[in-house]
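Could you help me review a protein record that somebody else here produced? My question to you is simply how this chain folds and whether the tokens agree. Thanks in advance; the entry in question is below:
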Amino acid sequence: MAEAATPTATPGAMAAVATPTATPEVMAAAATPTTTQEAMVAVATPTVTQGVIAVIATPTATPGVMAAATTPTTTQGAMATQPSTSTAVPTGNNAMVASATPTLTPGAIAAAATPMATPGAMAAAATPATTPGAIAVVATPTVTPGAMAAAATPMATPGAMAAQPSTSTVATTGNNGDQLRTRHNRKNNLILQELVDMSECTKRDILHTLFPRDPKELYKAFNKKRKQIKKLRSQGKLKPKTYFQILPSDKKEVNSDELDTTAMDDIFKNICPEIDPPLNGWESTPDDTDVKQGAHLRSLSVDRNNTQHRFYIRDDEFNVIYNRMKRRLKALGRTEKDFEDLLPPVRYGYTKPVSTFRGREKVLKEISDKVDQNEDLKLVIHAVAGTGKSEIVRRYYELNGDKFEQNILWIKADTEDSLNSSFIDIGEQLRLEVKDQNGHYKGINSIVDGVYRYLNDVQMLFVFDDVTDQRMLMKYLPSFKKQTVLITSQKSEWIQPDFVSIRLEPFDEAESKKMIREKSTKSLSEAQLNEVTQLIQGHPLSLQQFVAAINRTRLDVADFVQYFKAETGKTFEMPLFKTPYAHSAVAAIKINIERLIFEDDESQLAVKLLKRLCYIESEEVSMSVVKIICRDFDELGIDSALFLLPELSLVNIRNLSRETIVSIHSMIRETVLVINNENEEEQLVTCLTNFLQEIEVEKERISADHADFGKIFILHFIKLIQSQTESKQFQKILVDEIGQINQLMTVRGRNQVIINVCQNVLKLSNFSDHDQAFLTVNTILACAYQSKGEHDIAIHLHEETLSKMKTVFGVQHIDTLSSMDNLAIAYKEKGDYNQAIKLHEETLSKRKTVLGVNHINTLGSMNNLANAYQEKGDYNQAIKLHETTLSKMKTVLGVHHIDTLASMNNLANAYQEKGDYNQAIKLHETTLSKRKTVLGVNHIDTLLSMNNLANAYTENGDYNQAIKIHEETLSKRITVLGVHHIKTLASMNNLANAYQEKGDYNQAIKLHEETLSKRKTVLGVDHIDTLASMNNLANTYQEKGDYNQAIKMHEETLSKRKTVLGVHHIKTLASMNNLANAYTENGDYNQAIKMYEETLSKRKTVLGVHHIKTLASMNNLANTYRKKGDYITSTRLFEEALMKIKTSVSNDHPSVEMIRRNRDRSRMLLLSNNS
């Protein structure tokens, strides 16, 4: 994967290609490719090499700076994924790619320089694991998700991305074989935690034998000892936290429930002379023979500290601790009965049904019958919104919990993010190892698997609430039989017989009347009940809201019913729900909200909080996020609002293991957004501003490039910034922050979010064509499409920007030249190298004239031109230009400047692609050494160099050294960037490739599968990097000899690439080539020939007849004819390929020698056959 370093354009200038402060480098990430590139393999080793993925970073331009595509001398390298044959195709040298998360300040133009790694190198004849003579397709590197490369900014040199050691990523992610890590021993820990909780209750009871229980009286008791307590604090005998807990400065009461164990221990030790101290003192661990009251208390604290943070406790150790704690607790007054049923039921996410729940006996019986009749049941309860699906399931559990030993997992399933978050919560609640040794969350598949392994013999009710996508749900369902799964959904069509379904109907008239009579504090006549139930039509949410409204009204019943009827009539004119009963729900919700608006200040604050919850478009919001969006409220204001809103049934509040969750029904949310537009702009702007302030706070804690940055709030922020509001102030803030938004989304591979935000801004902001902000946003939009692989759209947008630049600034303005360079890089990434070279040469010529031959932007253009030649396969010309660029940079910037080092890295990559591995390794080692000195051992650019060096070792056949460096790089990236960062995943991919090249296919498959799983979770199933992982995994199966599995995966990858990228995209053609290779190795020569011919024809059209990939297809086709026994055709094709490749690369290029050997062998077979 080509990885570009993060360039920063110099202030005030348009970051020209050469402007960058960090030169890019390409990292050959063996397996990260998205399109498969190909290496030419020797006759004896034909098949696919694995894909190369160029990960390009998004440039960061300083305010007002236009990150020029050519500004590249600053960004660091793209990561080229290395091919699966022994040559790592460095694909991504390149234009100076802007940093992966450019923060463009307003008006800055993000250069398009997100170069893609150059397509495949030709693998040497000896390339292992491929069939004779085939040119193995290596995945063409692609831009890292969402990264916006400044076309010229980059200078990315190819290189491999270092991966973390397989031990740390794989062993920790899967099941550890450690005998201690059994379900039984986890239960040991849970039982001891119950004893710890019992210990705290016991200590609290003992405390209240000495002090009053009433909070105010308890405060008075401590206050009488104030002088003694202050002295103890000054002597260091009383911890400051304890001091402020028992003598608070802001209130005159102490609630003992808020005193933790440490505080109670401090109190017993220092201010309770009635407690007999342990024989050996309070600081020592009491001997088992010590029966003093203080010894019992101290021993319980010691055991608490020894067990609290442990996941696994052996039986022998458990028995010792359990018996000791039980003996101590009984000595302090506990009875034998207290120790029965210590293991509590497993519960997650469940809250009791609302107090207004009534009726539904028939449906409840139907659910119960189906559960009783099926020991392995997936039951779907489906109905329209607001019908009470979730409440019925809650009620069913309340009545039948004993069937499941009171165990229940209630999982919010409306989005994949909700499912992931729930399973992480569950894993933590069960005290499973959901994090790896570096403290980062494991892949979600590993966490889900761990949860179900723990629960596989537990009688459990699994509830998946509000499912929106059955396919998404499937991987989260229990992996074992004989379990009851209840699913709520608005979807009515479910696959049979895997799922049984029940359609939930509204309440009938009798049930509706019964609920109103029982829950309303007002008495309605039969006529009034008839009128209301006619309006509500049995809709549970409408009933709930009506009851909440009538209970708080000051009108008499008759007037309120008429008012409710009138409000229901008005809702027919609103653009809301189409179901007939929805109108009464909207009317009741509207009445409840308007009552709050016209009450006191606290009520109005509650409305503001409700609206903000609605703006972030999430049905469930953590309390942490509530505090972020309401950071302009004080704590008391938030508390008051969250007291009022549940009273009116407008929100629900529930507690999870980690924190409190505030949930709001989708119908209430949509209603609020329609009926209450007052101060909408102000509230939206405040929400956005509060999030941006939180982002600044978060930056002080963790790097914005880290995958865990903003983890608790980023998904809500993403929803907010895509709001369709026409607020000019809101859109202006987005424009001002577009660079930062681009950076945050790039790290997460959220290209579509960037596209949505840019499109909204362009649509709603009414920019003129001459507006600098328009040009900035349009460029970022182009780069987002480019990163997504939609090159035609990107080119169109870049051409539009360039045209406007010429009109606004003139053809030789530095910003215009940067825009031209961006366009050149877009053509290069599309694979139109001739057009890219033409534009790069024009940009370079103009920059020499306007800026001078030694200007940093001019050198950036030279670097980008070198990259284009390199991707075209003209390595001699590329090396010549890279050497000139490096020489000038040493003179202009100095030998240790980061841009000079990036240029050195790019030169190393060019030698690597040419096949001169010794020279490449020498240059990579020099670059790495200097970067360690200049930037430090953990800097992201240093890690890029490590990755590139590892790839070079892989291509040179030194697999052990490559694996060692990849493992170190992966480990460091996990620490620096996070386990789910796109560069970390690229390292994992590269490590897998190194194992593959070594021939350790099982380890390679394990790592590729883990990478694929994580990419699906982080980037999505159709992301170009995800498809690259799928391609790489298929290649590994192919090399292992499992051709059926390889063909199956190659076909799936090809199908997805056709849909996502188009049938003529270079990565789609690479997939076609790889599939053809798999057919060849499986002996299906006719099918292989058919596909090779189609690939060859399309490559001639897209890339040209002399392109190295086109000739790779010709070589592979010839090889398949040779295997089929048609030596005449194979010899002719080999001779044609050899003649053409000599015009494309130098005679000493490894591919020339390989095709020559292939041709000679084919000739020999032809002569032998004729004789």
Notes: Residues 893 and 900 are 7 Å apart (CA to CA). The longest helix spans residues 183-210. Confidence is low (pLDDT under 50) at residues 1-183.
